[in-house]
Amino acid sequence: MAKLKIAVLGAGSIGKFHVREFLSAGADVVAILGSSQETALKTAEDLHAEYGIRPRGYFDLASLVENEKLDAVSICTPSRLHYAQIKKCLEAGLHVLCEKPLVLNSHADNYGAAKELVEFSEKQGKVLAVNTQWPAVIDYIKDKVDLSRLKTFSMEMQPSVFGVDMLAEQLAHTNSMVVKLIPDGHAEEIKFSKHSPEDIDVYFKYINKKSECDIHYKFTHKVDRPRKVNFTFDGLEFRREIGENYQQRLVTDKAEFDIKDPLKVSIEKFVDAIEGKISPLISKKEIIENMALQDKIIAVYLRP
After folding, report:
1. Domain boundary among 132, 158, 176
2. pTM of the full predicted structure?
3. 96 has pLDDT over 80
């Protein structure tokens, strides 16, 4: 089978790591999109120096999709550009992986736009996936905790942004765990115990026909890396730690074990989904459930 041809939109920051993982998954990164001609050329040079590839640099998406023979794009641009870029790429017949959040047209009214894009991707017969990669850790945890009877779940992260932007940028990650663990659920009793620009704690119940789970998210502002990513399932905490060569592991009070980089898992599953082998890490149904939950939480946060 011929190698997939990928363009990365916004390859200068997190996009650089998408390039790395697409190459590792056996795809060809043939083009990138920058915010200007200068940044596109500079990023292309940087990628050649680091990975030995020569992607063509663009600063206009319409020109990129018209001139390149692509299979898929990976969107790593600012969140408020996502909706229009996803739609343009689906219209061009491309599979799409998008960084979180899938859309951010407003702070608390994105469900409709997300649902529209998911339905359009179905009409086009294309894979649409979002890079909320942390559910990849569930495979390492499921033999240590009875996830079928989960009563409490908490997740702690340290965003580099403040206030409502913490929620807009990070809820996609925390929600992805909840909708994966408790499918077809809904949130009740959303409340905040901390509500400062640098420190937000949100609590709610997530309920489906089989179970009710008490959820807690903790977001604390932090600029420098590494940043915490901790998960607690029914009182058992798993802390993500990073070792040499970015080897990631989960650590508890009694044990530790290596895990595959969740970003690598997300991109490998996206590539395999395009090739018809498996589903993406995050299903289209989960994308919509995630966005509905995000809108609901942020709407409560924004109340006077």
Report:
1. 132
2. 0.97
3. yes
